[in-house]
Amino acid sequence: MGLLNTTRPLIRHCLAIFLLTIHTDLCFGRNIQASVGGKSSPFRAEKEANSFLQRSSRHKRSLYHECYVEGCSFHEVDEVLSYEGSREYLYNMACNQWPCVTGCTCAKAHPGGNPGSGSHWRRCDDINECLTNKGGCREDQYCVNAHCGYSCPACTAIANCERLICTTASNHQCNRCNFDRGGQVIAYQRVASGGYPNRVCEQRCSWRPDSKFCYPGRCPGTPSTCTCAPGFGGNNCLAISSQPTIMHCLAKLQRIVGGAERDTLEADCGAVTAPSTVYVGRHIAYNRLQMTWDSSWIGPTAADWPRPYYINDFRVGIVTASTTWRLLRGGSVLRSGTITCDIGHNRDNPDTNLHDCVDHGDLTLPALQHGDKLEFKARATNGGYVVINNHDRSNGVVTQNPRQYYQGSEVIHTAHFTYDLRDPVHCSVASSCSSKIMEIGPPYTKNGQIQLRWPGWSDEGSGLGRYEYVVYKLQPYGDVLGMRSVTPVMSGSQNVSGGAGMVDVTLSEPGTYCFLLTVDDVAGNYQRARRFLIYDDVNNVTVDAHQPLWADSAAANTSHLWQTNLQNSLGTGTKISLKWPGRYRNLFHHQHKLLAAIEPYDPPIAAGYEEVTGLPPLQRSRQAIPNTYGIMKVETVFAVDHAGGRNITTPSDTWTAVPDVTAQGVDLDIPRVDGDSVRLWLRAFDIVDNFVQEEVLLHVDSSPPVVQNFWLNRHGVPALAVHHSSDLLTMRFEFEAFDDHSGLHNIHWSLQDFLNSSTVHGEGQVAVRRPSVLHPECDPPHCACIPKDSECYFRNYEIVPDLSKMDIPVGSHDHDYVFVITVTNNAMLVTTVTFQITVDESPPTPGHMQDALSGQRDLDFQQDPQLHAWWDGFFDRESGVQFYQYGFANRCLGQDEFGIPQPEQIHNTTGKFGSWTAPAAGTYFCTVVAYNPALTLSHPVCSDGITVDASPPSVRHVKLSGYHARPGLVSDDGGNVWIVNKDGEREVVEDPPESCSLGL
Fold it and tell me: Any idea where the EGF-like domain is (predicted)?
């Protein structure tokens, strides 16, 4: 019992495990399921289920059954094989079913415990392919082993290496550099670097274009070690720094006449720089130059500078020789040329021997000046070429590169010839003195006594010698003045040593004069100078009255009196244009051409010694003086006021010259507004300052006249547009017309048919109304005065057509007409206004009215004395209803009691209702008429009346139903006697007895 108690828990646990095993096998086992009723069942068959409770007997099975039926685990295999055999079996099985990739070999693994079969029974060990022939990598690659494989990275690059080898990433070297043609024919050489052999391809001087051939010179290593031969330098020693040698040099100027040499002048150029200059006189015109010289230059020899293998050919020497010349003036080159020695040599055929040059050339020079230099330069230049062998081809074929040329040096020897051609000079030309080349006084004068002086002359060469002067009166030749075959007025001369430097000249006739001065130096060089002068003390400026002075910008149809455009202070707007063609003249100056151009002198006068150009007042030059009929200057000045010019009667001193006197007109910027007046003064001058002065007065108006308040008037009522009658003569038109700037010029009217404007019923003029002598008043606003001459004009006008102006005086009912007013101001600016008129002869049609507030029903009685009436239904088919008149009275009003102006107690209104306060109780009537725009009234319409009763109310004839009274007599406060019956009805007793009355 104790054991049972002790083992009961254990039994209970075992039973639970057993049931759990059965349940698990029944639910999740892989055995064939029982079939219940032919259908699959989740429960075991009975026999199979009982087998769980029976002791099983185990028999030893085969390796196939244990591994492939029971499950190939180490435990199952171990039941058939030994321990080691089981592990070997599972290892082989893993290598077969899970083989290693190429590059690895399969080896035994030792998993812990007794695991089942799988790849964990083997491992994959790496095979190092790099141990055998670099794994097959190329020589420019190295082998790098990896797990189950390897790679072949490229060797580290070496610049300019043609064949690269390596065994590791750091162990690389060049087996052969680029352009290695064997022996000394190499462009790069292998050298060690960083302790590694053949690590660098180092460039050498060679034929390659990226290297140096360095000749003539030596290059033992890299291009940086290139050393050029003496006299050579630059890249590849292609620059020659040593100059050729000129041993003999002579320059000659020659004058050749008919092929024969007449004059020769020599200058030595044996030195690089000429020791002095050779001066050339002005009187010999040399026409040829000749140079004689020799030069040489010898280059380096092959013995001193051996040629490297890549130098194919080398030649240097003199390649060019020439003579250049320049004509110099100050620092400027006036002319230049070259005389080339034909030595038969050039840079492809240099001369290695002594070179002689003897040659000449024609010398054509421009006009020479003192101090001009003729410079000669003998030039020799060395140079040559070198040819390089090209070893670029790898097949051993050697070619030659194109020739490379040496940049040579030039040697220059110089000779100078200086021309001494200086004529005498005046300080005003040579420097900046204030003296004139001749002093003759004012160039335009009325004084015939002239003092001629000539200070300021000098000669830096041989010195001054003599002065010669001649005075001519110039004569006209066509359009110019000249001195052809003209006898001098006077002439003379003075020596410098004994002369006073002045002479007095008397002029007796008006004209243009020439003063000619010739200044000689001791060597025979000379300078001529001319000055000009106009003298006239007789003639004056005249006015041709047949030629007008006018403002062309002003309106022509106002006789150029009114300017009809404006301009602001910024110049925006039309200019005022003033013209005077042919009006002003100096006939003597014009006919004798005193102001014409002057012919040049022959031979020509040197620049600066004649006033070629220049205009008055400072100069009389050869240049023609612009003029018209002898008038050479016109000046203008203007002034503006707003008072018709009355405030601007004197010109200011701000005269402005007309830019172009030949235009005989000028356009002026004159700011102005409407109503301004502009006065312009003009002065016309001749050359000796005679002038005439005239003036022009303009008035400004750019705006057309104003026409306003244009309408019909009837019965004193303005602003009508409908006429009451087909009789057009009964029309009365009113309007305002005015122009505050220029006033009115004329007024024209016409009456036209509206539908056909060619049908004109009438037309005429309306006189412009102005104050008269008898009625000088001009009271605003119906009259105003303009600035010009304070002219005054009335503004209000009336037109009443009459038979003399009306061709068709009768119109038609219900027809339209147009009244046209055209008003022109004194500036001839026009305003046209049209006004449409309708003829309506019929009165409005009457309507109806009510005694009540507007819109309410008619009343007959009221206590309030404030009466109201309203009306409707009045109409006029042709022109409509313009307004109404109404009046209240104790009777209906007649048509003659209405009118314009409205009578007393009659009211005008455009509404359809009226009000009135009655003065006392009674019955009143409201009468209304309607007017159309022609002021024709309708027939009156009267209300049916309304009674105003202000008495208090009273009660009579009261009857009470069902009321019973005692019959008898009664009396009231008024003494009346009544008989009352039983029903309470009463009846007055006529003339009751006194006793009856008193007894009650």
Answer: 226-237
